[in-house]
């Protein structure tokens, strides 16, 4: 939520900042702006409401001087609407200091009153401008940007990453971080700052994650980090595991289309190095020791949105294989209801970005209450893994489209590996059964590839349904969270009312929604699975069909029982029941993407959304 980039080095700040913002735009696209100190030592700022292209067009029509030092921002509006005035950077110290911000400064109105009483004035409605003016005031007093930051950060409540430059200190960018992400890119004679490594990966793959409550100062040659008291902090470098081309569209019509198609690789890469001699062995869990894993009495999964849907899917597998009870909780509900937690509770957070504030707060709360925490995360150097006892990274590669797709399937793969590892340690599964599940898991990438081949059938369906105003999704067992996920995708991409229901729940109320022509997607469980599930879902289909529903069934190859009752059948390859979610979700992702495209919508940047939600 909000993308931040900082640069110091050669006389190319405008290009570096704009390229970084292009890669960060998925984090917010309400407005964008840059500030650059030119070679005459003058601070130039340009900012525009709307997507980055508007700022880029503005700069093309009327360029600003280049320079060696600068900051850039792409915004997801919180305080104040998406206007030119509210766009970042904001200025302090009579226009000599520029500041950008990701997060929310909760005590901004108290600080604003203080500054107003001292005669300072404001041009925007934002909390960020308050921080800029405060920082400017402290710069005037102390004459040094890092010192001014040290003086200001203690006065700010809430979540923030702040970056600033001052025209009297060219060649320096200073940043501070509390509860919002900030990563350093280490170059040769140049250094970078970014909300995530995408901001600078085309220039360097050497990075450092800035820790909680730290201030970082970069010059072309030197990087310094201190804590909020000014004590020096040692830092460790890491190598970014993917290159810039992974974050490019590479000929696809959208990032989402590319990412949907990358799911076979996302799952295969997540399995890599975690299967030995036919058994799931997750090296990252060694941090715990088998005795700790064996002592777990309860698992609580915390996550939001699509990541929570991955958690709901995994609950079925974890409970079946490990016999440990699992609750799945939306992170933002979790800590406010005084949950029962202790040292025998394991918290598993799931977050593609690793920055979702609701999930971060849930993890911190759980650990403070004595629970152990594992993070399932796709982003190196992100905050949630750093706040956890262990992390199992998904290796899906960068996910740029706002709607999560390959992140989701990779999360389920990581959770299944976790479950099989835990089951082995606890002895709750036979080696033969565990090995059979691993074989199923290893077969998933090729099976997803088969589903992707049938894309055109889904495109036709979407074109035919372009005027549809509401769609329902039904599933049972692991098909239920897939119904939730199908509905979420359609809502967020095509702005169509969509609901996912457990098929058995229909008769308890939602069946009243069915009227002639109502499209209903049904995830049909395998007839080879539980003896009861398949016929029950077929009965559910009949019940709604009798009331005029138009049925789109997602059913496995060879399931002929579904044919008399479905208007359209989308086929998925045979898989053991617990593995069907990997396959059944794919046509739903494609359907939502295609329907949005047919409606002329931007599938990568749906309205009102941002990729990583770093506010509560
Ligand atoms: C929907 C979507 C969101 C995210 C949710 C959690 O397509 O992407 O629902 O899944 O905001 O994000 P992460 O996984 O980054 O914590």
TrEMBL record:
<dbReference type="InterPro" id="IPR046348">
    <property type="entry name" value="SIS_dom_sf"/>
</dbReference>
<protein>
    <recommendedName>
        <fullName>Glutamine--fructose-6-phosphate aminotransferase [isomerizing]</fullName>
        <ecNumber>2.6.1.16</ecNumber>
    </recommendedName>
</protein>
<dbReference type="InterPro" id="IPR035490">
    <property type="entry name" value="GlmS/FrlB_SIS"/>
</dbReference>
<dbReference type="InterPro" id="IPR035466">
    <property type="entry name" value="GlmS/AgaS_SIS"/>
</dbReference>
<keyword id="KW-0963">Cytoplasm</keyword>
<feature type="domain" description="SIS">
    <location>
        <begin position="461"/>
        <end position="606"/>
    </location>
</feature>
<dbReference type="Pfam" id="PF13522">
    <property type="entry name" value="GATase_6"/>
</dbReference>
<dbReference type="InterPro" id="IPR029055">
    <property type="entry name" value="Ntn_hydrolases_N"/>
</dbReference>
<feature type="active site" description="For Fru-6P isomerization activity">
    <location>
        <position position="611"/>
    </location>
</feature>
<dbReference type="InterPro" id="IPR047084">
    <property type="entry name" value="GFAT_N"/>
</dbReference>
<dbReference type="InterPro" id="IPR005855">
    <property type="entry name" value="GFAT"/>
</dbReference>
<comment type="function">
    <text>Catalyzes the first step in hexosamine metabolism, converting fructose-6P into glucosamine-6P using glutamine as a nitrogen source.</text>
</comment>
<dbReference type="Pfam" id="PF01380">
    <property type="entry name" value="SIS"/>
</dbReference>
<dbReference type="InterPro" id="IPR001347">
    <property type="entry name" value="SIS_dom"/>
</dbReference>
<feature type="domain" description="Glutamine amidotransferase type-2">
    <location>
        <begin position="2"/>
        <end position="221"/>
    </location>
</feature>
<keyword id="KW-0677">Repeat</keyword>
<keyword id="KW-0032">Aminotransferase</keyword>
<dbReference type="InterPro" id="IPR017932">
    <property type="entry name" value="GATase_2_dom"/>
</dbReference>
<dbReference type="GO" id="GO:0004360">
    <property type="term" value="F:glutamine-fructose-6-phosphate transaminase (isomerizing) activity"/>
</dbReference>
<feature type="domain" description="SIS">
    <location>
        <begin position="289"/>
        <end position="428"/>
    </location>
</feature>
<keyword id="KW-0808">Transferase</keyword>
<feature type="active site" description="Nucleophile; for GATase activity">
    <location>
        <position position="2"/>
    </location>
</feature>
<keyword id="KW-0315">Glutamine amidotransferase</keyword>
<comment type="subunit">
    <text>Homodimer.</text>
</comment>
């Amino acid at each position: 939520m909000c993308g931040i980039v900082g640069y110091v080095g050669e006389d190319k700040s405008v290009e570096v900042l704009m390229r970084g913002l292009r890669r960060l735009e998925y984090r917010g696209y309400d407005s964008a702006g840059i500030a650059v100190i030119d070679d005459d030592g003058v601070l130039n700022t340009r900012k525009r409401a709307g997507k980055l292209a508007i700022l880029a067009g503005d700069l093309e029509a009327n360029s600003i001087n280049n320079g060696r030092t600068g900051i850039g921002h792409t915004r997801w509006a919180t305080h104040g609407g998406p206007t030119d005035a509210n766009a970042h950077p904001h200025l302090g110290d009579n226009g000599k200091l520029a500041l950008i911000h990701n997060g929310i400064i909760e005590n901004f109105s108290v600080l604003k009153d203080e500054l107003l009483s001292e005669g300072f004035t404001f041009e925007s409605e934002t909390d960020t401008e308050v921080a800029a003016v405060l920082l400017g005031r402290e710069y005037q007093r102390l004459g040094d940007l890092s010192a001014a930051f040290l003086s200001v950060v203690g006065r700010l409540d809430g979540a923030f990453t702040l970056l600033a430059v001052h025209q009297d200190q060219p060649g320096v960018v200073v940043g501070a971080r509390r509860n919002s992400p900030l990563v350093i890119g280490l170059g040769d004679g140049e250094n970078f700052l970014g909300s995530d490594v995408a901001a600078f990966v085309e220039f360097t793959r050497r990075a450092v994650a800035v820790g909680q409550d730290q201030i970082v100062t970069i010059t072309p040659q030197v990087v310094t980090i201190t804590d909020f008291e000014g004590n020096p902090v040692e830092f460790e470098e890491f190598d970014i595991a993917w290159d810039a081309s992974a974050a490019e569209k590479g000929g696809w019509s959208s990032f989402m289309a590319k990412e949907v198609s990358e799911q076979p690789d996302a799952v295969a890469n997540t399995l890599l190095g975690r299967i030995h001699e036919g058994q799931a062995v997750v090296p990252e869990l060694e941090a715990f020791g088998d005795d700790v894993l064996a002592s777990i009495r309860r698992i609580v999964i915390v996550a939001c949105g699509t990541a929570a849907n991955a958690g709901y899917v995994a609950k079925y597998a974890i409970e079946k294989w490990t016999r440990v009870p699992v609750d799945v909780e939306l992170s933002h509900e979790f800590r406010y209801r005084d949950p029962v937690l202790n040292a025998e509770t394991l918290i598993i957070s799931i977050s593609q970005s690793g920055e979702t504030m609701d999930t971060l707060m849930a993890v911190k709360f759980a650990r403070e209450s004595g629970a152990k925490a594992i993070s399932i995360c796709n982003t190196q150097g992100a905050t949630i893994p750093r706040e956890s006892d262990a992390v199992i990274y998904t290796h899906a590669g960068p996910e740029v489209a706002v709607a999560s797709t390959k992140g989701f399937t990779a999360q389920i793969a990581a959770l299944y590996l976790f479950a099989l590892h835990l089951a082995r340690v606890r002895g709750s599964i036979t080696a033969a059964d565990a090995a059979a599940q691993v074989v199923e898991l290893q077969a998933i990438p090729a099976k997803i590839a088969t589903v992707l081949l049938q894309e055109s059938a889904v495109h036709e369906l979407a074109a035919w349904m372009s005027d549809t105003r509401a769609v329902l999704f039904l599933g049972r067992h692991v098909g239920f969270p897939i119904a939730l996920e199908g509905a979420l995708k359609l809502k967020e991409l095509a702005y169509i009312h969509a609901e996912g229901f457990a098929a058995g729940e229909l008769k308890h109320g939602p069946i009243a929604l069915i009227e002639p022509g109502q499209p209903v997607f049904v995830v049909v469980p395998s007839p080879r699975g539980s003896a009861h599930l398949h016929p029950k879902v077929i009965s559910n289909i009949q019940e709604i069909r009798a009331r005029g529903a138009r049925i789109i069934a997602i059913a496995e190859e060879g399931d002929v029982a579904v044919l008399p009752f479905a208007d359209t059948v989308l086929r998925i390859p045979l898989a053991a029941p617990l593995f069907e979610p990997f396959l059944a979700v794919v046509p739903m992702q494609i359907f939502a993407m295609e329907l949005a495209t047919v409606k002329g919508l931007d599938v990568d940047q749906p309205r009102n959304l941002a990729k990583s939600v770093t506010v509560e």
